[in-house]
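Margin note from the TA: students keep mixing up input and output lines. Inputs are the sequences; the output is the structure of the whole complex. Example:
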Amino acid sequence: MMSLLPLIKKEFRSFTRSPLGWVLFSYTMIMEGICLSTAMKSLADTPIAENLVFVTFHTPNFWFFFLFLFPLMTMRSFAEEERSGTLETLLTTPLETYHLVWSKFLARVLFYALLWLPGIGVFLAFGWITDLPMPFMKEILFSTHLFLFILGVYFIALGNFASCLTSNQIIAGIITIGFLIIQYFLGFVTVIWGSHFIAAEFFNLFSAQAHLTNACRGILDTAPLILYLLLTIFTLILTHHAVNYRRWKR
Amino acid sequence: MINAQNLTKSFGSRTAVDDLSFTVDKGDVIGFLGPNGAGKTTTIRMLTGYMPPTRGSATIAGYDIRKQSRQARQAIGYMPESVPLYDDMRVSEYLKFRGRIKGLSGRRLKERVSDVIEQCGLVEMRRRIIKALSKGYRQRVGLADALVHEPELLILDEPTNGLDPNQIRSIRGLIKDLAKERTVMISTHILSEVEMTCNKVIIIDRGRIKAADRPENLVRSLRSTGSVILDTKAPAQEALASLAELQHVKKVREITGKEGWNKYEIVVDAGTDARERIADLCQQKAWSFRSLHRKDSNLEDVFVELTRRD
């Protein structure tokens, strides 16, 4: 833990000190704002029997901006250390590979959690700003953001894994996008083919869209949450082995 | 301090380091020499725990690099060839970060960072962003980093690579000072650097040790084979043929030719002195000559002799 803290701090500072961190922060706030205003316009134009949080996170913009957050956040993590040679200086100190894997992961999880805070603030201030009754329950805001947090944790682990496969951060970003698009379209398999085949349950389990829909209605299903956490741990272990494999083979 | 036994590293079918065994005693300053691609960096990477050997083993300060890797790495201060640093950090901030991950904290960390900043001549640069530093100062930051946790062994991979002559002189001075208190292993192909700073030399080529001894012993062993330099005004073909026929002469090579004068390097058998016979030949053939002397060998000649591929 003593070695982990300075590493996490260093990783987190790489966001606050570089334009990338601030660009990501602005990007998230602007896109969330667009989603919220689109949702408010939709609710004003057509009566919909859903709450504001549901409509906000079901606008066409949402998945587009959400999926692009992760390659931008993770593409530098290992790729840049390998390109610049700092990976060698880190791993020839008394640190172990798992220190690097966990510190890069935890610093990004922390940064990711902070990205959502302004958006949550805007939702909470809705009633105060508009002087209207809150068009959602606070529990729904909580369940939706808890689901997005856990999904994001898994996506960060995937992004870090992609970044340790190459020393080129652009390629790392493209690989991450590839992983996330595959994950996203797994959720559409049963929509396209129907649910009348044996593996349908499996595809439903991976449907992030369906899980988000549930969370936005206040239903927090623990099965996908546990699945994402297990996948996160599996991806972190994979990252650990990939980092070792790449440095030992060169 | 270092005890390497049969260290071998293979990458697929290519063997980069082949059965390397050597020892380095406490307090030694070792020059680890070899041409580009000889396996120096791979050996260093195995010793520093960055990659495991395919076969063989090594101990650093008594710790096995495989089984007690963490303790072995704690005993090493390592500066890689390209001196990779975090460009967005300030010098003192970077050294504090490096100190922390090497296990320092609190007052001890502050003291050590302050000491290495002073020792490496970085006092005026401590608040500078690393990106803005010259190559010489980056090298000093790399050295300060390697020293911050007071390692017993300092391993420097090409420490003066890419520096201008003034920077080389200043870094060399710094390494000389550091070598007074600890064991140092310097990988380089700048031989003057080794002659000035090291008390032992290991020369490797194609992953194998070619020689390991004190620099003066290596030079002496080469001198015992011996070369004579003759500067004469003689027809080149005739001179090459006649000199080659002399007793104890192994090889004759024309070095330079200018305004009718030609310089020859005459390699003779160990323990022989062919100068008298050469002088007699010149007299007999009526060749004027303006110099005839034994060639002084240096470490560069040893290096070339052991590693040349022609």
